[in-house]
Amino acid sequence: xxxxxxxxxxxxxxxxxxxxxxxxxxxxxxxxxxxxxxxxxxxxxxxxxxxxxxxxxxxxxxxxxxxxxxxxxxxxxxxxxxxxxxxxxxxxxxxxxxxxxxxxxxxxxxxxxxxxxxxxxxxxxxxxxxxxxxxxxxxxxxxxxxxxxxxxxxxxxxxxxxxxxxxxxxxxxxxxxxxxxxxxxxxxxxxxxxxxxxxxxxxxxxxxxxxxxxxxxxxxxxxxxxxxxxxxxxxxxxxxxxxxxxxxxxxxxxxxxxxxxxxxxx
Length: 266
Description:
- The chain is an alpha/beta fold.
- It has six helices and 14 strands.
- The chain has an eight-stranded mixed β-sheet, sandwiched between helices. Strands 1-13 form a two-stranded antiparallel sheet. Strands 2-14 form a two-stranded antiparallel sheet.
- The longest helix is centred in the last third of the chain and has 15 residues, at 229-243.
- The protein is globular.
């Protein structure tokens, strides 16, 4: 846990002695730098954030796939960074984030280059293999935008519990991919912003009707990038509702001695 400093001040407290969880709040977790190794010999960099009790004791594991790297997507895309900052403590979850091939973040740059979702099939396989080799409990694939395409095209791995999709554009993923998920049988939960730039709720319901076990969740007033703490809280709550509903409602306050602030997550 990082100590409070002038650059990283302790959060302000209320009369109750607790502090509000804000967009840049960082709660206690074990945070470990990891590497994934693909079948085509690339090294991908990432981080595993786990509850203080250890990764094996978590209620479930979120295996995240970030938005399009050619448009600014990476493992630190804000919803995922905030999930890693909060959910190990709030919901007893592991959160695994990584950079797909050719993508850079503060953690480093993954080898290779962007391959339009084709070569990235090896990245998805390496992600699931890592979770299996490290006995991470109840892995769920979580994709955002481009990450949803990777899940729909390449995520039908028998070891996963299911998939959670945020803002799916359905550009690269085809009806054949949706039909394959229908046959796969694992659950799919889809959060669709009312004002998404690519796929809005009515059309999402129609397209995903090919998957009987899919559930489309429209989110009023939201946009593709889920900007704003209100929408981040909604996304995190919907994820937890799927993977560990006993942890709801997520707390909005935390003990200030156990919370720091991350300027990069503001």
